[in-house]
Write a structure and sequence with these properties.
With about 325 residues, the chain is α/β, with parallel strands linked by helices. The strands form two sheets. Strands 4-5-6-7 form a four-stranded mixed β-sheet. Helix 8 packs across helix 10, helix 9 crosses helix 16 and helix 10 packs antiparallel against helix 13. The protein is elongated.
Length: about 325
């Protein structure tokens, strides 16, 4: 489902439920397909022949302009001859362009054994590493590549349907060495920020004035990047080690929502000039946002700090000609 959602940006994929052995596997995939917003094809009542099911899915795809089919086969051990033979028949009937083996990144040596056996039997074209967001740092990737010569193509980095990324060996090496994933972080920032956001930022730099609307836009971009704790994992170890002293609520996504609610409870005049927000206004904003006056005070203090930084960046940008380049940053 993660792979289908990723491909749906430029293709029309369909998930085909070929795991007819595990209870509720078909229903689970149907639900995930719905959440991913992609097409789904499953077995008829009592159907047990996955090859016949696969061929019906091919015919359905041809008549519905579906250009990518992902056949979700049952998880299995390489020693299970009956189930491996099932894969042999599917390969002969479908002539697939890709045969991807999903390997648990935390499985260690077992990943190597499974990959060797599957590759020898089927000729695997690529590997997908799952659970790469766990304690494992990618040792399975090195083991699989050494054993098979087959490339790791994708990596699962979380439970959400968006938590899949194209595998990059250089970034994986940096992650293993505790250097973080700065390239991945930059990608997330680019995905979160639209060209309109960049133009608005450039205008704010020119005016050297930071407003609550600018801060609200920053919160929205951070929210698009995903869970804060996952974003922090992409920073170098030296940076994250310094953040260990932060209170747990500092990286709480709910806190971000509360900060947004506080800004959204302000009037237009208050957003433009937070200096006018005194005692009675603070109580009204806290009540309107369902927070406390203390949280409103914390946000106003945070705003003052960011406003000062904004002015410094604006002055530096004018001196070094950086502001004019911001607008073209996402058009290259």
């Amino acid at each position: 489902a993660k792979l289908a959602k990723k491909l749906s940006k430029s293709h029309k994929p369909m998930l085909v439920a070929c795991d007819l052995r595990r209870p509720a596997a078909v229903d689970q995939l149907r639900v995930l397909a719905g959440q991913a917003g992609v097409a789904f094809f499953g077995p008829e009542a009592g159907e047990s022949d996955v090859v016949a099911l696969s061929q019906r899915a091919l015919a359905y795809a041809a008549s519905h302009l579906i250009d990518v089919l992902i056949f979700d086969t049952a998880g299995r051990l390489a020693v299970d001859e009956e189930m491996m033979a099932e894969l042999d028949r599917m390969k002969a009937a479908l002539a697939p362009h890709e045969i991807l083996l999903v390997v648990d990144a935390m499985s260690g040596q077992e990943a190597l054994n499974v990959a060797e056996a599957f590759n020898k039997r089927l000729g695997v074209t690529g590997v997908v590493l799952s659970k790469l967001d766990g304690d494992a740092r990618g040792g399975a990737a090195l083991a699989v590549l050494a054993a098979t010569g087959v490339p790791v193509k994708f990596a699962g980095v979380g439970e959400g349907l968006d938590a899949i990324e194209q595998f990059d060996p250089r970034r994986m090496a940096e992650r293993i060495m505790g250097m973080g994933d700065m390239a991945g972080l930059v990608e997330k920032i680019k995905e979160a920020a639209t060209e309109t956001d960049v133009q608005q930022m450039a205008q704010s730099f020119k005016k050297q004035r930071f407003t609550m609307d600018d801060l609200l836009a920053q919160f929205a971009q951070v929210e698009k990047m995903g869970p804060l704790d996952k974003v922090m994992e992409m920073l170098p170890g030296a940076v994250t080690s310094k953040m260990k002293d932060l209170p747990p609520e500092a990286l709480d996504d709910k806190r971000l929502l509360r900060m947004k609610a506080i800004i959204q409870s302000m009037t237009k005049a208050e957003r433009r000039d937070p200096a006018i927000i005194k005692g009675s206004r603070r109580r009204r904003i806290a009540q309107g946002s369902g927070t406390t006056v203390q949280m409103v005070n914390q946000l106003l203090k945070q705003f003052e700090q960011m406003s000062e930084l904004w002015k410094r960046f604006g002055k530096m940008g004018k001196k070094r000609g950086l502001i004019g380049r911001l607008g073209g940053m996402f058009r290259r």
